[in-house]
């Protein structure tokens, strides 16, 4: 035990000396030292309580006692790799299969979202014998080399786009290519995918997969119009490719109406591969790939073993099972709908009041608030969004921004978030936006007086 706890500044100095500087901190101008958390709250070294609107990993609430207990009990008994038979792994696969459409009946367990997406890529390529991947613009799918290659959010700042990667426009009906006034944005966006495939074929390329987050989050909390995935999948299947749905941020009941976000597209849509991570273990590193028998068999046909030392170990699976239990017992999916709808209503009231709010969109406890400088161009209000989240932190609320313009306030709190929390956040946003508007007016008056 250390005799004296370190101050925040000492920890920061040590981190700066010892940890790679590309590992960024939240609120980098004034980083926080968090030492404990409970439910939807986090606490700094001075005992100050912050409302967490960011953390979709602590899905059922930080340090939920049922999850801590499940981990502790299994840790006392056994933890080993999945080359031994263990009931936790098969029980967990069976429980997950009950949440998914019947054809997604084969499971692989891993340790991170990145590992899951990398395996999904291997499965797709092995099954189709093709190499190329279509991704949505601004997407992020993980930190492995293979995934940086299919993440425009990253590769645009690095050496660029590989010849086997094709970028489709984000199906964003607010600020995308085809907007809410388009007569058929579903077909228009799907036709973009069709065109990409045709162009790729002309160059002799073959499509292995269409890789998409079911709700593009890094892309700016986007809700693709229902029916888009079906139409895009039709084109991709025709080209011999498969559809991979990345549910790493948005799965496990977050969207309220459904357990999986891809189900928002309609009952007639089933991806060929689904990847899961983040909320799956409530903070414990576990991830999963679900796919069809046919795809799994094609992968096995190589004769090469898939072995993952920690993936699917008894402790991880005990935790995964406990997360599913809590979601069920505490009715968190229905809760996400109820609280999410309430939060959306409050935010929409603010939209009527503050012109900086261009759009409020979401499903369940996955909500985006698009801040704009002007109605005509919908120019992202990037600096204002940054200022707002800095000020919110001073009011003990943790919120982040996302989207290519870094102007979308991104709500994805632990699922135990309450209506009172929603009211507190929105009242605070109202107060801060009102102050910002007053300040802006004063500045305008001063500059008019000066001229
Ligand atoms: C949509 C999406 N996919 C994949 C990943 C990678 O997950 P991990 O950081 O657990 O490797 C992330 C992480 O932010 C993500 O947001």
UniProtKB/TrEMBL annotation:
GO terms for molecular function: identical protein binding; lyase activity; pyridoxal phosphate binding; transaminase activity. CDD domains: OAT_like (cd00610). The keyword Lyase applies. Its cofactor is pyridoxal 5'-phosphate. Keywords: Lyase, Pyridoxal phosphate. PROSITE patterns: AA_TRANSFER_CLASS_3. InterPro entries: Aminotrans_3, Aminotrans_3_PPA_site, PyrdxlP-dep_Trfase, PyrdxlP-dep_Trfase_major, PyrdxlP-dep_Trfase_small. Coiled coil: none annotated. Pfam families: Aminotran_3 (PF00202). GO terms for cellular component: mitochondrion. Belongs to the class-III pyridoxal-phosphate-dependent aminotransferase family. This is 5-phosphohydroxy-L-lysine phospho-lyase. It comes from Strigops habroptila (Kakapo). The lineage of its organism: Eukaryota, Metazoa, Chordata, Craniata, Vertebrata.
């Amino acid at each position: 035990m250390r005799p004296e706890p370190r101050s925040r500044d000492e920890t920061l100095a040590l981190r700066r000396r010892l940890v790679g500087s590309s590992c960024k901190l939240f609120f980098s101008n004034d980083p926080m030292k968090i030492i404990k958390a409970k439910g939807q709250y986090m606490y700094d070294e001075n005992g100050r309580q912050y409302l967490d609107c960011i953390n979709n990993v602590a899905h059922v609430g930080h340090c939920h006692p049922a999850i801590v207990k499940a981990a502790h009990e299994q840790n006392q008994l056994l933890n080993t790799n999945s080359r031994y038979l263990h009931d936790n792994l098969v029980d967990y696969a069976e429980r997950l299969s009950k949440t998914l459409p019947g054809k997604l009946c084969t499971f692989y367990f891993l340790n991170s979202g990145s590992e899951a997406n990398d395996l999904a890529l291997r499965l797709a390529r092995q099954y189709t014998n093709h190499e190329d991947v279509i991704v949505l613009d601004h997407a992020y799918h993980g930190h492995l080399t293979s995934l940086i290659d299919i993440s425009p959010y990253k590769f645009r700042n690095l050496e660029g786009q590989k010849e086997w990667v094709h970028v489709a426009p984000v199906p964003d009906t607010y600020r995308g290519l085809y907007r809410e006034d388009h007569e058929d944005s579903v077909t228009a966006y799907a036709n973009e995918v069709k065109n990409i495939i045709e162009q790729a074929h002309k160059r002799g390329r073959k499509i292995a997969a269409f890789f998409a987050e079911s709700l593009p989050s890094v892309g700016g909390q986007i809700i693709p119009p229902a029916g888009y995935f079906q139409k895009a999948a039709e084109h991709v299947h025709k080209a011999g490719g498969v559809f991979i749905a990345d549910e790493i941020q948005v799965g496990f009941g977050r969207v309220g109406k459904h357990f999986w976000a891809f189900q928002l597209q309609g009952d007639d849509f089933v991806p060929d591969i689904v990847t899961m991570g983040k909320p799956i273990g409530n903070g414990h590193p576990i991830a999963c790939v679900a796919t069809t028998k046919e795809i799994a068999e094609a992968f096995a046909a190589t004769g090469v073993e898939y072995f993952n030392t920690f993936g699917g170990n008894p402790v991880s699976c005990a935790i995964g099972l406990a997360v599913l239990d809590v979601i069920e017992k505490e009715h968190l999916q229905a809760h996400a709908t109820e609280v999410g709808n309430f939060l959306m209503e409050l935010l929409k009231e603010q939209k009527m009041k503050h012109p900086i709010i261009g759009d409020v969109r979401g499903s369940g406890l996955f909500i985006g608030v698009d801040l704009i400088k002007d109605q005509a161009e919908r120019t992202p209000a990037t600096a204002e969004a940054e200022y707002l989240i800095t000020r919110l932190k001073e009011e003990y609320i943790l919120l982040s921004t996302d989207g290519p313009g870094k102007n979308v306030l991104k709500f994805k709190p632990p699922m135990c978030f309450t209506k009172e929390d929603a009211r507190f956040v929105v009242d605070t946003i109202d107060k801060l936006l009102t102050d910002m508007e007053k300040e802006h007016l004063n500045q305008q008056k001063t500059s008019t007086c000066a001229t």
